[in-house]
Write a structure and sequence with these properties.
single chain, three-stranded antiparallel sheet
Amino acid sequence: RGRYYKGVVVTANADGSMDIDYDDGDKERNVEKSLVRAEVESIFRRYDTNGSGRLDYSELRPALRALGVSVDEREALRVLQGYDADGNGLLELGEFARLARQLRGEAATWTGAVRHSRAAPPAAPEAPTHASEVERLESTVERLQVEHRRFARESERMRLESERMLSESRQMEDELSLLKSEKGALEAECTRLQKLVASRVGEAQSVPQARPASPAVGLLALPNASIEPEVQMAFDIFDSDRDGVLSQPELQAALVQLGLEVDHEGAAAVMQNYGT
């Protein structure tokens, strides 16, 4: 044809051709795309901003305005769902052409046509609004504040626990220092007792024997007179049977324990001089 005739693209075929219904009632099928100069296609291409050959709901809004219909994002999403025949969430040219054709004849009731043109598809998630975004951010901030307070309480608890452990450590150090001091005092007292006993044993061995050694085992008892506390302590330690006297074996064990090299004869000599 040498001129263009007004009509509507009813179908965009897979091979790129189009089926056209003209305004004068004529119909033409499989028209080559190069022969078509459709207003609807021009609008479609103009608002297909990414050149994908499909319109998403954000591209559909200005395209609908170009057709004389003003909608918000939610309404554009519902329109897309109503005319998205293959359910891919986008409008191809043929689907957009069907929408444009219906809008021409039913501009006053297009929303009703969208609702009842076919079974409603599953609702797509609503596009986030400013209010919902603010609510989400407020919820996030509140959650972070709760976490911050929990972290602050845990930090305070750990600080108090650290101070308690440090106090206990210092107390244990003081107790250890006291024990070391007491140990030094005990070692000094033990050394003094060893020297005292060694002195007494030396005196006993230097005294001439007044009588021959008796085969009988004598006993060494403390006199009733006043006794030095240190001597009484040493005596009580080696009086193993707690009978108030030291036998010769107990005496020898005591002298050896105190660091004196005293054999059986030495213990017998001490017993002869001091025993009963």
